[in-house]
Each structure stands twice: as C-alpha cells, then as structure tokens.
Design a protein that fits this description.
Elements (H helix, E strand, L loop, with lengths): L3 E3 H7 L4 H7 E5 L2 E4 L6 H11 L5 E3 H7 L11 E4 L9 E4 L8 E4 L2 E4 L1 H11 L2 H15 L3 H10 L6 H9 L8 H12 L6 E7 L4 E8 L4 E5 L3 H4 L1 H16 L3 E5 L5 H14 L9
Parallel strand pairs: 5-6, 11-12
Antiparallel strand pairs: 1-3, 2-3, 4-5, 7-8, 9-10, 10-11
Length: 284
C-alpha cells in the first residue's frame, strides 16, 4: 500500500476492506487516505492533493517550492494547484490560471510548476514579506533568480498580482540562509539603507568566513545568530575565532539575535555607518 492512496481504488483492488480503511487510515481529502499512526507530513499532503485532482492538477506555490528543495515551508501550508475545479476541500487552493507547457515539469511523477513559474506564483499571490521569504529559499535551493522569472510577466500579461510580483522579485536574494536573515535584510531596505550584499566572503589568506549581509565600501556587516550559536559549545568556540578573523580584516560586524527590535537594529547599523564617516539619508 502506498503511503497516500485513493480509498475507492484500494477497495476495488481487493487489497483493503472497508473495516481496515475505517480503523487504520484517515481521510486527508475526499477519498484520499493516509495511515492513522502518525500525523501526515507536508509531502503526504502534497501527494494527497495531487491524487485528489485526479493526477491532473499542477502543484505550484509553496508546495512546489518544497518539492524543488526549498526549506522553511511549514507542514500546515495549504497546497496550491493550478487546475479547474469547483469548491476544493480545506487546505487545498485551486486556481484556474493560464499555464504554458514550458512552465510545467515533473517531480516524482507529479506535475509541478518549474522553479521560475513557482517563483512567479509565489511573488504574485503572497504578501510581500512572505513572498520574499519563500523566494529567497527557492533561489537558494534551485539557483533561480529574478532575471529568470521576469519574462513570465511579459508572457502572462493578464495574470493577477503583477505589480506585487515585480516588487517581491526585485527583493529576491538566494544568499539568505534563513527566514530571519530575509527579515533582517528587509528591515534594512525598508529603512532606506543601501541594499546589502549577502554572503560576503572575508579571508586572511588562510582562513575564511562569510558575513550574512553588509556593504563592502564602509565594511559594515550584519550577522543573524540563532539560538544554536550560544547553546552549542562547539559553535560558540568557532564563533570566537570567526569574529576575530572578520574584525581583523577591518569589518564592523553587527551581531543580531531574535530579541533585538527593529529600532535597535537600525540604530546600531546607522551608528556603524557614521563611525565609517558615511552620512546616510534619514530613515523612511
């Protein structure tokens, strides 16, 4: 028995009785079942949604991004399909949109939008910050960039959300390695600061380190540090040597943690620019 299956087909095949179906499996969607012994995974929900569509829907949006290897897609994320349907069940979003064959690929035999079309749909249908967060993760996983996606805006001139898509795609950056890094970058950009470069390599000729984001000319950088930086002793020791390397090469490196407010982050960043003799425009 497959992990996710069509109940009626399993009954017709004789491999399952109605009693076993009722006691051992749960319905994810109408006539789509999964075992009861553990909560369904995101991938199982994706497979189930595709089976519910009769294997005809094309998976897009966040679900497609996850299938392409993007991280940080929550297990509770709705599954988005491009397909013609009336009223979908809960947790499935169906959009009857134009979709050219060139924008469809397969992942594990399922129909999925290509990385470029996936990015196009993420940018159009999600609020800006959420869109950029998922676009960053998709770019990091697949290498897709805004230049790959923008031609789709010319091809699908009547698609919904094009102005919003252009804004999100302009902010897309595959150098972000976590949603927190994306959020930090957007805080800086929204305050009117120059757009930072991500994953800046710093080396003394022997050792190297990468700063999450920053500006090369004033040599001001920012690093987001998750809880593991203080909880993991090995990481903590590594960070000491890393900080010495970065400072030794002339960088002002601002370390940001979850508890830091937007106001505090911007104050420290602008103060670092001032120490370098840079006069920035007033906050937006």
């Amino acid at each position: 028995m497959r992990e996710v299956f069509i109940g009626s087909a399993a009954l017709r095949g004789g491999g399952l009785t109605r009693g076993r179906l009722r006691w051992n499996y749960r319905a994810m969607y109408p006539d789509v079942y999964v075992a009861k012994d553990r909560p369904p995974t995101l991938r199982q929900f994706i497979v189930g949604a595709w089976l519910w569509s009769g294997r005809e829907g094309v998976i897009t949006g966040r679900a497609a991004a996850a299938l392409h290897g993007a991280k940080y897609v929550d297990d509770a994320t709705p599954i988005e399909l491009i397909w013609k349907a009336g009223r979908p069940p809960p947790r499935i979003i169906v959009r009857n949109e134009r979709l050219d064959a060139a924008d469809v690929t397969t992942v594990d035999d399922m129909l999925v939008t290509t990385p470029a079309r996936t990015a196009f749909d993420l940018a159009r249908h999600l609020p800006r910050d959420a869109a950029v967060r998922h676009l960053d993760a998709l770019a990091g996983a697949t290498g897709v960039c805004a230049a790959d996606v923008l031609p789709l805006a010319d091809r699908y001139r009547r698609a919904r959300g094009l102005p919003r898509a252009r804004v999100a795609l302009d902010l897309m950056d595959g150098g972000a390695q976590s949603p927190r890094e994306t959020r930090l970058r957007l805080i800086l950009v929204d305050d009117g600061l120059p757009r930072p470069r991500t994953q800046i390599r710093v080396s003394d000729g022997v050792n190297e380190a990468f700063i999450d984001m920053g500006w090369d000319e004033p040599m001001v950088g920012l690093d987001y540090e998750g809880a593991h930086h203080s909880a993991d002793r090995r990481q903590y020791v590594h960070d000491i040597g890393r900080a010495e390397l970065i400072v030794g090469q002339g960088w002002l490196d601002i370390r940001v943690v979850a508890e830091h407010s937007r106001r505090f982050i911007l104050h420290r960043t602008r103060e670092a620019f001032a120490r370098r003799g840079w006069h920035l425009p007033k906050p937006v």
